Amino acid sequence: MTTDGRMLVGVDGCKAGWIAVHRHPDAAPWVSVFPGFAALLAALPASATIAVDMPIGLPDSSQKGGRGPEALVRPLLGGRQSSVFSIPSRAALYAEIDDFTTLEAWYEAHRRASEVAKASSDPPRGVSIQAFGIFSKIREIDSLLIARPDLRGRVFESHPEVAFCRLNGDKAMALPKKLKGAINPAGMEERKALLCRHGYEKSFLDQPAPKGAAADDFLDAAAMMLIAGRIASGEARPHPDPPLTDRFGIPVAIWA
């Protein structure tokens, strides 16, 4: 694999903001947490290739199954396909942009966003609680890619379960990372073993996740870093191929 000396960065959202696993070619990886995606970008060289577990490129209206990429990758994942959320319209993503101080206000905002999503989808479809929970992070990246077209060749959407499937010879993981909302140790070990086959040291993966990030966020970011390497070397494939584009010209594809 050749990456032309570029830094590779895998990123996942976490409670504290964003967790990133970085690696310079022929150097050991390290992990960091950033409060915002702009802060993460500011800490990286302009040549870095970044793969992030977050939807990039938003539709004006949503069809059954979400955007094109979600519908394409779900069949690859077997029992893991529920991990791929359907992404609603741009209007729904931006319907509620305030910070919510109470749980009641948060649920009310979810309800209003769902109404906008239903009005801009065919057939009408609301927003899951899980998807609504990452809306602010989707907007964070979206606003940066609208304002800075230069980032569109550096920041790529991926998805951890699609990444693990691709790294596992196109075979989906047998075990879930979580069961009923709690970490599933067997599923985590299955993924760690796979990551070690692709060059990670077990001791690196066994370290506690940084403050503000969960153990599964850490493993997902580690997988994203391997996808960044595949993108930089030309091995990765987009779903769909070629990527779609949204109305701002932002590419819409899941890479792995």
The number of distinct β-strands equals: 11
* Distance linking N and C termini: 15 Å
Radius of gyration (Å): 17 Å
Run of helices and strands:
EEEHEEHHHEHHEHEEHHHEE
Number of domains: 1
The number of helical runs is: 10
State the major sheet.
5 strands, mixed
> Share of helix among residues?
25-40%
Beta-strand residue percentage? 15-25%
Catalogue the unreliable spans. Answer: none
Q: What order do the strands of the largest sheet run in, or round the barrel if closed?
A: 3-2-1-4-7
User: What structural class do helix, strand and pairing data support?
Assistant: alpha/beta
Protein name: DUF429 domain-containing protein
Pfam family, one: DUF429
InterPro entries: DUF429
Organism: Mesorhizobium abyssinicae
Task: Describe the fold and architecture.
This protein has 256 residues and is an alpha/beta fold. The protein has one domain (1-85, 151-256). 37% of the residues lie in helices and 19% in strands. The protein has a five-stranded mixed sheet with strand order 3-2-1-4-7. A two-stranded parallel sheet has the order 5-6. A two-stranded antiparallel sheet has the order 8-9. A hairpin with a 5-residue loop joins β10 and β11. The protein is globular, with a radius of gyration of 17 Å. The two termini are 15 Å apart. The model has no long low-confidence stretch (mean pLDDT 94). It comes from Mesorhizobium abyssinicae. It holds the Pfam family DUF429. This is DUF429 domain-containing protein.
